[in-house]
Amino acid sequence: MLVFEQARTGRINAAQSVKKDNVTNIIPEQFKRKTRPLLPEISEMQAVRHYTRLSQKNFSIDTHFYPLGSCTMKYNPRACNQLSMLPGLLNRHPATPDSNSQGFLACMYDLQEILKDVTGMHEVSLAPMAGAQGEFAGVAMIRAYHDAQNGGKGDPARTEILVPDAAHGTNPATATMCNFKVKEIPTNSDGDVDIDALKAAVGPQTAGIMLTNPSTLGVFERKIKEIAGIVHDAGGLLYYDGANLNAILGKVKPGDMGFDVIHMNLHKTFSTPHGGGGPGAGPVGVSKRLEPYLPVPMVVENEGEYHVVTEKSRSQSIGRLSAYMGNAGILLRAYIYARMLGSEGMQRVAEYATLNANYMLAVMQKSGFEIAYPERRATHEFIVTLKKQAKDLGVNTMDFAKRLLDYGFHAPTTYFPLLVPECLLIEPTETETKQELDDFMRAMIAIQKEAETEPEIVKTAPHSLPVRRLDDVKAAKELDLVWQSE
Amino acid sequence: MSEIPQDLRYTKTHEWIMKNDEGTLTVGVTDHAQSLLGDLVFIEAPEEGTTFQEGDDSAVVESVKAASDVYAPVDGEVTASNEVLGDTPEIINNDPYGDGWIYKIKPEDAGAFDALMDAEAYAEFVNSGDE
Predict the structure, then answer these.
(1) What is the pTM of this model?
(2) Which of A308, A341, A374 is the last residue of a domain?
(3) What range does the domain containing A115 cover?
(4) Residue A27 is assigned to a structural domain of this protein
(5) Which regions in chain A score pLDDT beneath 70?
């Protein structure tokens, strides 16, 4: 039941009602609204019960194994929340002068330095507020770089960004937003970028390549040095999509692979909370030649004092992406997470994330599931394809995914990457125990049995949740997102 | 097994092509393609007068699972676009070879149709699992 449907005219929630001496009294009359806002009139207890019940219907990282992994959100350590909400940090106004923000700015500066170190980049800006904005900033810097060549006359021939067909959908979208044409590079049957196709595609029109390494196929790009050489020799730049940084954190540095620009998803790799779609943080790191174009603000240190620098002193910057320091609370959580781990802890993240994935790959394969790239070692994730089940039993990946919910597991990513039919992209992350992984795989084996003996139960799942199979076609076609009063 | 009409031609990217009397070709996506995509929720068909080279992105079909490009099977100019698909994309799921056509194109080279894959070759391609 919607919260609005529980409302009765005149019912008041005392804790939330407006006090006489409310601060809004100083707002001039002409700016005050004349009509009441459309809010449900319910009691405090109704509100508590309504939202508590909703939260109990959730599948979340705090209640269930969630093999979407760092692709969506890792476990959020409680200490990060506690420490980032210390009163001095929580109550700091974003317009506070630098001299009174030294603690906060020290954290931001240290975070820049930590991210530089772990990615091997020359300089980092924390400004972008999400992965997509980080991508945009990264490719905007590639454009700014080419525009500044030939003594400022630019290099207008460079109109193309290369994107492997295994890439995340955001990559071509970003390139298009930055006014580049997208050229798709195919993947070979082993899951690597097709080197011959890449060689044929590069030229004086190449502005750069956007690459995810490890790729979305759950494999490490083996020829990364060669790819970097081919693109650099053609005068293009290399963009690193940090979506899968979890697999190499602290072990290998994108800077050492030859990347010129990278974005990181702190809300993924660095464990910050972003349930419900936000907030995020997508810092960008760059090689020396892109350093002048970094988005502002950035934090610098000078004789033990920290300062915010803006476009005033960084005239070639691509500019601002948000007011003030972006999602400051998220940056703080990522900083605390990084400090708790230290450099050794970060290596452990990559080691356990990849160990867990490879353990699962081995067991799933032994249990008869078809692995998309069986010859390859898994990264922090791997792909199972259920195309045989779909063809022979009429039970497809979505049916398995829905049935997993009945067994108490959130489904892994389904139907992505698009290159593998009927796929499940399984990413356990580093924080899950072996028992949990075993339980998940036992559920998959049990569902496989059901698919063979009583497929209807799988095809009509879920059976034990507050809602049954949702009509996702209707949901996509008839958007109904906002409550309307009659 | 998906339906593959004998009188049409096909591409490896799962478009079907029909030859019309007035010298144009009708383009749609195959039964196999629509079954892989699942229920379609959005179609972007090209405007009349748009010109394409073979292999260009000519239309977009989007399902609840994925968005996919429809590639131009030949060089040519679009002469008609199936406008009802905008409101009722599910026509492609229900009738991929009939009312679910996407656009008509006037080929630059009248012989281009004959160079495309025939039904037998397409059936073999789909069954080989190479797609």
Answers:
(1) 0.88
(2) A341
(3) 82-341
(4) no
(5) 20-24, 276-277, 486
